[in-house]
Known about the structure:
Order of helices and strands: EHEEHHEEEEEEEEHHHE
Number of strands: 12
Radius of gyration: 18 Å
Distance between the termini: 11 Å
Mean pLDDT: 91
Number of helices: 6
Structural class: alpha+beta
Shape: globular
Strand order of the largest sheet: 1-12-11-6-7
Low-confidence stretches: none
Helix content: 25-40%
Amino acid sequence: xxxxxxxxxxxxxxxxxxxxxxxxxxxxxxxxxxxxxxxxxxxxxxxxxxxxxxxxxxxxxxxxxxxxxxxxxxxxxxxxxxxxxxxxxxxxxxxxxxxxxxxxxxxxxxxxxxxxxxxxxxxxxxxxxxxxxxxxxxxxxxxxxxxxxxxxxxxxxxxxxxxxxxxxxxxxxxxxxxxxxxxxxxxxxxxxxxxxxxxxxxxxxxxxxxxxxxxxxxxxxxxxxxxxxxxxxxxxxxxxxxxxxxxxxxxxxxxxxxxx
Length: 260
């Protein structure tokens, strides 16, 4: 029998409203699992939601940059719990995102103002790395993370984002790292979580209330136990398509991390 490890799956769909308006998907998704059996096993999932407002015309690019930057930084970090207690990671994510945004801006020959208008690429970000020693989660802006235990009980982690004016917290803000919320969950075999669900706010907003969204975490857990992760992976995009069409109408990016 192979050793249990964290596995990452996910999907992304264009929002029903965006499809009708012929606007690009504003969400980003990053998934990565360890491939070297000689190194500690891990799985990483990141989702991001570009703001999509008139003042953020390139936020779809900003979201894709955000998940790539966060995912690659998390993958490169040592599996040392103390490393994740350091404020340098949120600082590094902000710094690398802004550098990548500037590079993209120049590559596309766009006019550059002073100071640089990061708001053009404004986005949220959620990222989780799961190992067999600890789980680390971070978030800036809206979106949701559910932690599901071995009994299938789901609960949200990390505080709900506050707003800055009319907008959610964002990587485009000055000193954006100060708005990043983080949580470390040490590994304890007796009560270790079995699954995490990450999603941009388009998914939670497809439910009539927060209880319906939380129940979805339990439902995914039960599907996993009854039909397996491959079954979920094969059907996830279709389910998200239905959620957007019949619910929020927004883009949806979702990832699941499961220990199996």
